[in-house]
């Protein structure tokens, strides 16, 4: 098959799109290095100069004022526990749905898919009451709520991928003496690796940056994730500490960008495998 030449028009269009997507991040970075007066009076679009340069002072203020270490710990605990729980439970559920393929499993699958189109605003008040009743209103139990909201996408992707796995591989493992759990952990999990990584990244980006659900469920006086802590740079009478706020936003997005860049090669592979097969 002959290699198709790259269209210069497509390259230009995609380059422009990339610049538009990156511009807000660059703008936040530029303003995180300015003095507050330069942001509020001179405007947010200008580059920092020798007079407006504030260096890392905004980052220092951000870390000290928002109790960064505690907020980072809560964000890390919630994100890691939620993603691990979603990956484990949803991959098992997808395996069951595909291999059993009964009426009950199909109903369960379509309920999971349907959950992706239900607006969060429809259930958030009932959810807050339920979380208080079941004692899910802390960073170590909120992962159960995230499992419910993240199951739709994860089950959908895992189900599509499992459909492409030959049943003979699992039967051979059972003949060799493996139990169902051993088949799952020693046979299925290695095969599911691309989809697990890609789905985990998507779920991690969602949980790490989520503001509404933790604010709705957690006690904001005791537990503050990084997105929750950012809002506390807003003072009385509408005053906003723009410099430290911009710096805190950069601190918030840097870890997830690093994870994304390290694992990005698995995203397209996993999404295509999970959404097309079957």
TrEMBL record:
Per the UniProt entry, what are the Gene Ontology biological process annotations, in alphabetical order?
transmembrane transport
Q: Name one GO cellular component term.
A: plasma membrane
Q: Where are the transmembrane segments?
A: 12-30, 72-98, 107-127, 139-162, 183-208, 242-263
Q: What is its main location?
A: membrane
Location(s), subcellular: Cell membrane
UniProt domain ABC transmembrane type-1: residue ranges: 72-263
CDD domains registered for this protein in UniProt = TM_PBP2 (cd06261)
**Keyword Lipoprotein on entry:** no
Its placement in the membrane is given as: Multi-pass membrane protein
One Pfam family for this entry, by name?
Answer: BPD_transp_1
What InterPro entries does its record include? Answer: MetI-like, MetI-like_sf
Keywords for this protein: Cell membrane, Membrane, Transmembrane, Transmembrane helix, Transport
Superkingdom of origin organism? Bacteria
What family does the database annotate?
Belongs to the binding-protein-dependent transport system permease family.
Q: Which PANTHER family match?
A: ABC TRANSPORTER PERMEASE PROTEIN MG189-RELATED-RELATED, SN-GLYCEROL-3-PHOSPHATE TRANSPORT SYSTEM PERMEASE PROTEIN UGPE
Listed name of the protein: Carbohydrate ABC transporter membrane protein 2, CUT1 family (TC 3.A.1.1.-)
Q: Which species expresses this protein natively?
A: Blautia obeum A2-162
């Amino acid at each position: 098959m002959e290699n198709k030449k790259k269209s210069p028009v497509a390259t230009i269009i995609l380059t422009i799109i990339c610049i538009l997507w990156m511009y807000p991040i660059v703008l936040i970075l530029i303003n995180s290095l300015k003095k507050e007066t330069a942001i509020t009076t001179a405007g947010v679009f200008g580059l920092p100069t020798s007079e407006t340069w504030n260096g890392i002072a905004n980052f220092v203020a951000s870390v000290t004022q928002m109790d960064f270490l505690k907020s980072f710990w809560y964000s890390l605990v919630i994100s890691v526990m939620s993603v691990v729980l979603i990956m484990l439970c949803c991959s098992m559920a997808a395996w069951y749905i595909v291999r059993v393929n009964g009426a009950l499993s199909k109903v369960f699958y379509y309920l999971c898919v349907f959950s992706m189109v239900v607006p969060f605003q429809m259930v958030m008040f009932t959810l807050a009451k339920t979380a208080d009743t079941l004692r899910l209103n802390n960073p170590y139990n909120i992962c159960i709520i995230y499992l419910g909201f993240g199951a739709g996408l994860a089950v959908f992707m895992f189900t599509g991928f499992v459909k492409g796995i030959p049943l003979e591989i699992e039967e051979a493992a059972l003949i060799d003496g493996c139990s169902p759990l051993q088949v799952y952990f020693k046979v299925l999990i290695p095969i599911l690796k691309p989809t697990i990584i890609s789905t985990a990244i998507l779920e991690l980006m969602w949980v790490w940056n989520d503001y509404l659900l933790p604010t709705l469920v957690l006690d904001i006086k005791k537990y503050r994730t990084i997105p929750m802590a950012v809002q506390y740079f807003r003072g009385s009478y509408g005053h906003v500490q723009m410099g430290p706020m911009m710096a805190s936003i950069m601190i918030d997005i840097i870890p997830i960008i690093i994870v994304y860049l390290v694992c990005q090669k698995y995203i397209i592979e996993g999404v295509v495998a999970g959404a097309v097969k079957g």
